[in-house]
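Minutes, methods subgroup
Present: GH (chair), OT, SY

1. OT presented the first of two proteins processed in the latest run. Sequence and structure tokens recorded below as shown on screen.
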Amino acid sequence: MADPNAGLALELVRRDWAWAGISPDTIFNVNVFGGILLTDTRGIAWVVSPHEVDAYAITDLPGQITNFVNDPQFMSDWFAKDIAHRLHAALGPLSMGQCYAKLIPEALGGRDDVSNYRIESLDVFSARMGTLAEAVTTAHGQCDVAVDIAQDGTPVFEVLDPDHPPG
């Protein structure tokens, strides 16, 4: 059965995550956290993980995606049902095109608990986190990130260049 968010996810990978070297072909799954499991045009399996501020190939060989999809441990980690159930109970169900968006990623000091999530559109979440991931990657991790929370509750990230501090 095709993932109902596959078409949107394909466009988001092209728009927000192409900088990572992904030329997306087939979306296998979009999880409730906005994570996207896909293959590229070479058949290489990728994970786009906005809540981890990351995108990475999970294999170097074409055609290996079925090994991951059929691996119960991988899929258990992918769906993270324990926290997904708690988020559903606390925040409510998701509509098409929505995800449980982590406000502040753990890499920036955020906690992996219900208080650090909200329901958000996949489109907005992917754009924000893809932009942040690209900026941090471009700086080779040699930067600080300032986090502010806007009045509407949206996190605002500013990547600070250590060679050019704000002033």
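2. SY then presented the second protein from the same run.
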Amino acid sequence: MIYFKILEEKRLVVMVFKGVITPADVMDFIDSLLQLDAFDPEYSDIIDLRSADMSYDYDGLRSTLHFMATTKGFAAKRKSAYITSNSKQVVPPMLMKSGAFDLPMEVEVMSTVESCLEWLDITGFTPADYEEILKELQVEV
């Protein structure tokens, strides 16, 4: 399952991936985001993978990254911060960083909310604010 909240005033999208996540889940989620008026592809994003089981093989990962790069209205210049807790979760964002898929996002991988927020440099958004969003979404990581 993918939970999310769009914070227009902070120009930020918070996404929390939980449980088994497949390439189809990610592509369906992107399609649903693109239907929302509040979604802006230039907003920074936090992608919290700490509770996700990334069920990917290489072909699935490649097709997902290709989809991200070519889907109109999704790929844009922005900061994307991935929060991970194990090596399997690191693979997708590291492939994004490789440049092989022509994604315009600036991607970083972190292990803590604090380092993620420091890198994104969003004024007035703290780890406590992030925890409040998790509570709103009723997600534990």
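Chair's summary of item 2: The CA atoms of residues 4 and 15 lie 4 Å apart.
Next meeting: continue with the remaining queue.
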